[in-house]
Each structure stands twice: as C-alpha cells, then as structure tokens.
Amino acid sequence: MTVYRGCVVAPDRHYDVEGDLWVRFEGELARVGMTDVAQTRMGKMVSIRFKKPGRHVAAGGSVATVESAKWVGPIHVPFACEIVDVNREAYDRDILIANRDPYGEGWVAVVRPDDPEAAKAGLLEGEAAAEAYRARIDELDVNCFRCAD
C-alpha cells in the first residue's frame, strides 16, 4: 500500500487518476469507487444519487452523482459499461461511508465493462498509479484525512 501525504493508493486496484476513481476487476465485472484523494477533496458527503442497475453508461458517463459540503458532481467511469449493482444500502446506513472507507465499504457501483481488456488498458496500476498519484497530490496540494462523526 502506498501512503503519500496521508493519501492511500491501494495496490490491488486500477486507477483513473484524473477522474479520482479506482476500479477493482472481479472476473467479468468491475467494482468502482472514489479514491482517498476524491473523498478528501469533496469533504463530508451529504447525498448520493445512483443510476439504476441495468442502465448502460458510455465511456465518460456517470454511475452516480454526489453532493458534499464543497462540491456537487458526477462519478464518471472511464469505459463503457452496464451498471450491475449500486451500494445504496451502505450509503443509506452511513452517508459518510466513502469518507471513512473509500477502498472498502464505500464502493459506489459494480459494472460490466463492454470490453474488459480495453477498460484495463486505459487505467494505471501498481507503481505507475502510485507515482501518478504522488504527482497529482503535489499538484493539488492535498493532504488526505478521513471524516469522523
């Protein structure tokens, strides 16, 4: 696990660094969520609206829209896919779940990429992802933190 300026980059994920999105491929499916940098930059989440499972999303389209104290905007996926599941129950129980656990219980959606190999090709992983995030963290001057009650 890479930790830089308090920001975690989990080693078992692929990353869309510019989109602050992580992707964990699980067979033909992919679980997606906001990175530690994303949850820090947005601050405490206030609400989330999920797109419905079964919906097809084009590359660059969104699987959900989040609202925080500082920001309102979509969570984009960098590849075309179908939404299979969303994490509505976890967010209904604890709206701050992504702020507390962005790489675990705070996942946002499970999707089925139209072309899994092409989806992976556009993402970074391992040391390349860690290096890209170190540069992004410095560029944005971010120090990550987790929300408390």
Structural commentary:
- The protein is α+β, with helices and mostly antiparallel strands and 149 residues long.
- It has a single domain (2-131), classed as RNA polymerase II/Efflux pump adaptor protein, barrel-sandwich hybrid domain (OB fold (Dihydrolipoamide Acetyltransferase, E2P)).
- Helices cover 26% and strands 36% of the residues.
- The chain has helices at residues 36-42, 88-93, 97-100, 116-121, 126-140; strands at residues 2-4, 7-9, 14-16, 21-26, 29-34, 45-50, 56-57, 62-68, 72-76, 81-86, 109-113, 124-125.
- Strands 7-10-11-5-4-3-12 form a 7-stranded antiparallel beta sheet.
- A hairpin with a 3-residue loop joins strand 8 (62-68) and strand 9.
- Uncertain ranges: none
Global mean pLDDT: 92
Global shape: globular
Q: Could you give the order of strands across the largest sheet?
A: 7-10-11-5-4-3-12
Total strands: 12
Share of residues in helices: 25-40%
